[in-house]
Amino acid sequence: MASLDIEDVSQGFGDIKVLDAINLHVESGQVACLLGPSGCGKTTLFHAIAGLSRPWAGRVLLDGHDITGQSGRLAYMLQKDLLLPHKTILDNVSLPLVLKGEPRDSARDKARELLGLFGLEGTQDRWPAELSGGMRQRAALLRSYLFSREFMLLDEPFSALDAFTKADMHEWFLNVVDTCGTTALVVTHDIDEAVKLADIIYVMRGAPQRGEPAHIVGCEPVACERSQRASFSLTPAFLDHKRRVLNLLG
Ligand SMILES: Nc1ncnc2c1ncn2[C@@H]1O[C@H](COP(=O)(O)OP(=O)(O)OP(=O)(O)O)[C@@H](O)[C@H]1O
């Protein structure tokens, strides 16, 4: 696992400034959530963190090392699972290791060892189209984890799932984070999901198309043991966090 620091990152396209001096910190082993209105610049920030674009200004530090503009240093899972339809689940999830130069057989062995933890036992020879939405997301998460075990950027990983599957996935995800000891920054539009998953929630606001670049308006630490998270949403503390986040969103 690794910590992440975003220091004064500004970014834009042409004449439009999208991000204005964004600062955030994700502690090693934590789950941080990023909340913000549609179009404020969350994906733009993720691209800058993942090194898919170089920011106009500022730095991205992974465990204190400057990785600004470098791609391939952390895992980045897009909203859509993007599993390759003509590859089996095992070949899909082991792909990052193969692309990094690992021999196919040993990549498959490493992926196979983790199928159980990711709730994918028995699926290794199946095609993505044969799996449920939740299973596909777990496969996509395993593929991201095999790309980088240290840090995962997850863009709305559960948004396409129905409410029941989503609730199961939340519990499962926190268990995996604990067991694997990874660190994650998760974009979500769902305030309940953020309070349920996050150790810290960052709230971003802005309307770049109207000349208002986005900035972080505040953060909400959520101190709740992972073992207590399943029933957390029924507690007054949960509602207090939610109220404060809603205030930050304005
Ligand atoms: N390649 C690009 N060229 C020009 N403008 C862009 C480009 N990518 C994004 N933008 C603009 O940057 C702003 C932020 O977009 P971004 O996709 O980062 O927002 P977002 O918060 O991720 O939105 P959503 O929650 O709807 O996914 C928008 O105004 C968008 O039009």
UniProtKB/TrEMBL annotation:
Biological source species: Collinsella tanakaei YIT 12063
Domain ABC transporter: residue ranges: 4-231
GO MF annotations, alphabetized: ATP binding; ATP hydrolysis activity
PANTHER family for the chain: ABC TRANSPORTER ATP-BINDING PROTEIN, TAURINE IMPORT ATP-BINDING PROTEIN-RELATED
Presence of the UniProt keyword Nucleotide-binding in the record: yes
Protein name per the record: ABC transporter domain-containing protein
UniProt cross-references to InterPro entries, sorted A to Z: AAA+_ATPase, ABC_transporter-like_ATP-bd, ABC_transporter-like_CS, ABC_transporter_ATP-bind, P-loop_NTPase
Transport keyword on record: yes
Keywords: ATP-binding, Nucleotide-binding, Transport
